[in-house]
Structures are given as structure tokens and as C-alpha cells.
Amino acid sequence: MPEAPRLPRLPGDGGPGGPDAPTGIAGAVGMDLVHVPGLAHQLTIPGTVFAERAFTARELREAQRRADRTGALVAEPLAARWAAKESFIKAWSQALVARARDGRGGGGTAPVIAPESVDWREIEIVSDRWGRPSLSLTGAIADAVESSLGPGAASPGHWPVSLTHDGDWAAAIVLWAGA
Predict the structure, then answer these.
(1) Cβ pair 159, 174 in contact under 8 A
(2) Alpha carbon 120 to chain centroid, angstroms
């Protein structure tokens, strides 16, 4: 069997995510998949506070507007946003592991914030007027990201996000594109 072709290396490239990786290369990735009917069911349980604890008022309004405009379930855009929030946590965790591996501190063995202490509304998915999503970090989450990954690490430019949904599934991917 012939050997697979090798991609050319860029000058100073230590490989994907390596210490010499060129600026702009993703250093960590988080991805999540959410079952839309499962989330829709969660939203309809009497007395549930999931939506109010997981999403900001703006996210809930945007999801309702999108559902009204397209005739889709409100759960579709919310499922994609929930996937993005989970994806962010995964990418952040991977960024901490990479920094620890590279000897730049930041931990990498234990989460900076205990999972039960995460205020999911501090991880907000906002869309521009063309519908392109971006990540907005606030409060304790933003503070923890900045203290663990460095000044400016909580800015949206460090966390590119992509959302999708098709049929019963929604997915998101978040990258850590920081230095």
C-alpha cells in the first residue's frame, strides 16, 4: 500500500497545535452533538427551569425569532446553542491541557470551575445581523478563562464557533485560537 502524502510544513511549524505552531492555528477543539427531540422534551417538563438556567434572555429571544421565521421548533436553535456551550467547555479544557503540556502553566489536571458551579448563561452564543454566531463570555467564566489562559483570552476572537442542525440533531464546534 502506498504511503499517504504528507502535508508540507510551514516554517517554524512544530505540527498541529505544537509549541511552534503558526499563529492562527487552533490549539484546542471542542465538539458536541445534541438530540433535538430530547432537548424539546426537557423544555416541556412542567416546572423545569433548564431554559432559564442554560440560556440568556437574548438567546431565548433569538431562538423564538428563528423558529417563528422558519417554522422550525424553538428547540432546534437552542440545541445548537447548548452544543456550543458544551463545546466551549471541552475546548477550554483542551487548551488548559495543551498549555500544561507546553509548560506554560494554566493547570490541565482539574477544571478551573467545578462543573456544578458553571453558570451556563455566562457562555452566550450571539448572532450578528447576518446570523453568524460568536461566543460571548462574561462573569466568573470570563474571569476564569482570563486567569487560566491569559489576558484577553475571553474575547470572542479567541473562540470561533460553528453551529448546525439537521433533522433530529444539532451540533457545534468551538476552537481555541489563542496564542
Answers:
(1) yes
(2) 11
pLDDT of residue 52: 94
As a whole number, mean pLDDT of residues 37-63 equals 95
Looking at residue 102, the DSSP 8-state letter turns out to be T
Closest CA to 38 of 87, 88, 82: 82
Q: How far apart are CA 113 and CA 158, in angstroms?
A: 19
Angle made by CA atoms 134, 137, 139, in degrees to the nearest 5? 160
152 backbone dihedrals φ, ψ, rounded to 5°? 85, -5
Q: Which residue has the higher pLDDT, 37 or 18?
A: 37
Partners of 176 in beta bridges: 28
Instruction: Name the band, by pLDDT with cuts 50, 70 and 90, for residue 15.
Output: very low
Greatest mean pLDDT among 19-23, 96-100, 156-160 lies in: 156-160
Name residues whose C-beta falls within 8 Å of residue 99's C-beta, 6 or more positions apart in sequence: 105, 106, 107, 108, 148, 149
